[in-house]
Design brief:
The protein is an alpha/beta fold and 257 residues long. The strands form four sheets. Strands 8, 9, 10, 11 and 12 form a five-stranded mixed β-sheet that branches. Helix 1 crosses helix 3, helix 2 packs across helix 3 and helix 6 crosses helix 10.
Length: 257
């Protein structure tokens, strides 16, 4: 299950410093080094310039300083660093032991700084949007488009890819057409007065609850159709789209969080 990161993060107060070589998906280390170096260099210079590039308020120099100190910043498990609506609803830390073990192998987060992160990877808090362009590096998304594919395919193996990324992070890597039969993209629609729309809060909260339910249940759906059937059994209203060269879209329709 491929998740987007959260903009909000809980900064660890203590913990060993970042060790890129210790992260999962070691094939991404060279790309991680390039993005990290470009971000630290930017944020070690003029704070106002860095804030403008990173699209943060110029008054939030704390976010710039956070990035400047990344090489020596304390780290914690990624599932403790990522926060916000989706991750609050997912509540990885409160899952039963068996479900947490499943999360270690079934969940990955697409990160603008690290490419692909597993829940147990130790990372610092950082501020870098997926649509950022860093001096000396270029668009972050372009860096990951060149590097991310093999790591994601290795993580998926022979199983089903449940793609829950937002549009920004979906641009980091597109599944190849030969994987399409094993790709399920999930869209959350809020229905009110007979009308359906995509609402950010409902989308994030529902995706978090959905992943939690799948991890807690434990069954491993191997196709989009079987995933839709499993989610229906678990109480969700799911509508299955036609298979395409990009995968099969599942619409999860909700009326309330």
């Amino acid at each position: 299950m491929l998740l987007p990161p959260s903009e909000g993060k809980t900064a660890p107060r203590r913990g060993r410093p970042l060790d890129l070589a210790g992260l999962s998906s070691p094939s991404l280390t060279p790309a991680r080094e390039r993005v990290l170096a470009a971000l630290v260099e930017l944020c070690s210079g003029d704070p106002s310039t860095a804030a403008e590039v990173l699209d943060v308020p110029r008054t939030r120099t704390d976010l710039v300083a956070l990035n400047a100190a990344l090489a020596d910043a304390p780290t914690a498990r990624a599932d403790a660093v990522y926060s916000g609506v989706l991750y609050d609803a997912l509540g990885l830390a409160t899952l039963p032991t068996a479900a947490r073990r499943r999360a270690a192998s079934r969940v990955a987060v697409v990160s603008s700084l690290f490419g692909l992160v597993r829940p147990g990877d130790r990372i610092p808090a950082y501020r870098l949007s997926g649509d950022a362009t860093l001096p000396g590096l270029g668009p972050v998304a372009a860096t990951w488009r060149d590097a991310l594919g093999p790591a994601v395919l290795d993580a998926v193996g022979s199983g089903l890819l449940v793609d829950l990324r937002s549009g920004t992070y979906a641009a980091f890597w597109r599944p190849p057409s030969d994987l399409a039969r094993r790709v399920a993209t999930v869209r959350v629609l809020q229905e009110r007065d007979g009308r359906r729309s995509v609402v950010s809060h409902f989308n994030k909260a529902t995706k978090g609850r959905l992943v939690r339910a799948l991890l807690d249940d434990g069954r491993d759906a191997r196709t989009p159709a079987r995933l839709a059937a499993l989610l229906t059994e678990l109480g969700w209203h799911v509508e299955v789209g036609e298979p395409t060269a990009k995968g099969t879209q599942l619409d999860v329709v909700v009326t309330e969080v």
